[in-house]
Amino acid sequence: MRLGASTQSYTPYPGPMPLRITGAADAALIDLPWSVPLSAWPEDQIAALPRGLSRHVVRFVRHGDAVLAVKETNPHIAHKEFALLRELERLGAPCVKAVAVVTERTDHAHEELSAALVTEHLVFSLPYRALFSQGLRKGTLKRLIDALAVLLVRLHLAGFYWGDVSLSNALFRRDAAEFSAYLVDAETGDMHHSLTDGQRGYDLEIAITNIAGELLDLQANDDLDDSVDPFEIAERISQRYEQLWLALTETETLTSNIPLHVSERVKALNSMGFDVGEIDMQHTEDGTALTIRPKVVDAGHHSRRLLRLTGLDVQENQARRLLNDLDEFRTLHIDAADDESFGAHQWLTRIFEPTVRAVPRDLRGKLEPAQLFHEVLDHRWYLAQSAGHDVPMPVATASYVKHILPNKEDEVAVLGRSLAEMTAELPALTAEVGTTYAPRDAHENDNTHGWGTVPEPDDAEPPVVRRQTTRKPVTATPRARPTSATDE
Predict the structure, then answer these.
(1) Where are the beta strands (DSSP E) in 199-273?
(2) Residue 429's CB: how many other CB atoms inside 10 A?
(3) pLDDT per position as a tens digit, 449-478
(4) CATH assignment of 20-121, given 3.30.470, 2.60.120, 3.30.200, 1.10.3660?
(5) Where is 119: in which H helix or E strand?
(6) Which long-range contacts (CB under 8 A, 24 or more apart) does 450-456 make?
(7) Residues 306-323: pLDDT tens digits?
(8) pTM of the model
(9) Superfamily of domain 126-249 in the CATH hierarchy
């Protein structure tokens, strides 16, 4: 078209809408194939991890060294859920970490695609159906319900109304002998300053209905034994919830020994894994008694103590078990008994770290280090019961690595060979691995430990510095450079 030849306006062909990624500080996210529907993403980018039931398309995606969970939904729900997860994370509630919201996606034909919510995959977590596929026992099922009850209480204390409480909308991680539950689907939730009794009660009703339905579905698929009563198990969440909620929020009226009663109330909450930040105390109208109620309650009492002492960041029940072993270690070692911090360092370097390092690298991905340590402690107890005497930690670790860990996908404590067969090998294992861990050089990865190890005496003569040069002195006038072969 010649300039000025026509006054008709020119509208270029509309191209694809610009991709928009909100929330992430990771520029590499833009390289994922957002122009392809999530269900058709290439297999080399999909991580083969167990997925729970979902009303949306969900895929686990490899992204560098991490794994992301990507869920397709509409933009409004994606932004709402992203904001809720970020707020819950800020409040310290157990939930998956929100990474980004991806909107304005189009395919190669310029057709609009669904928005996507991106979260971090919770390492070592499983959906409840993956646990049931391993032949879950009734006692373990009850622990799952208990974990979900604790999660619901913590969310309600934070002012979060879930709106769709179910096993499907949570992920579970092994936490010593128990489980910890994490919120994974928050799209039906809402944040409030505090919840009314009606809101909490409705969440519980939804939980009972959903859990009973999920367990009935498992029975229909022969994934749950017929002897399990789904309605009885579903009612358990209400019972456990009410017990925990009452312990955390109950108002007591005290007439005597008030400091003692307050101290006992705080210790009881600490034993349940909660720290009390504030207590609301008020005299009764006639002035004859005092009413008290915990005002600010934070979960993670034991995990915070272990983190402070050792730097290990683990879950609450794992922390409780590790602290018990640490305290036992301090009672048996006089040099570690007096100073708690020093004792914790000695336990970390002499017991915990050598136990974890004793596991072959190809087996370390099966369990978190804290969970692995807990299971070695359990295995050590079984071995000691069978052998009739204490079993050293290195021997118990060697036996666990040989007999238990390779088959860890099964939900049983001791697999394959009998305890009698294992304990029969204890003398051989003792001769092979020893009864104590070899001391580790604290400076093996430190190239500064040798600095200043041989200090100069105070009265030493100052060193004489002699400067030398390799340059030869000029003794004569240099000859002119040859300009031809004849000159040479």
Answers:
(1) 252-254
(2) 22
(3) 445 444 445 555 555 555 555 555 555 454
(4) 3.30.200
(5) strand 115-120
(6) none
(7) 888 888 888 888 998 999
(8) 0.71
(9) Transferase(Phosphotransferase) domain 1 (1.10.510.10)
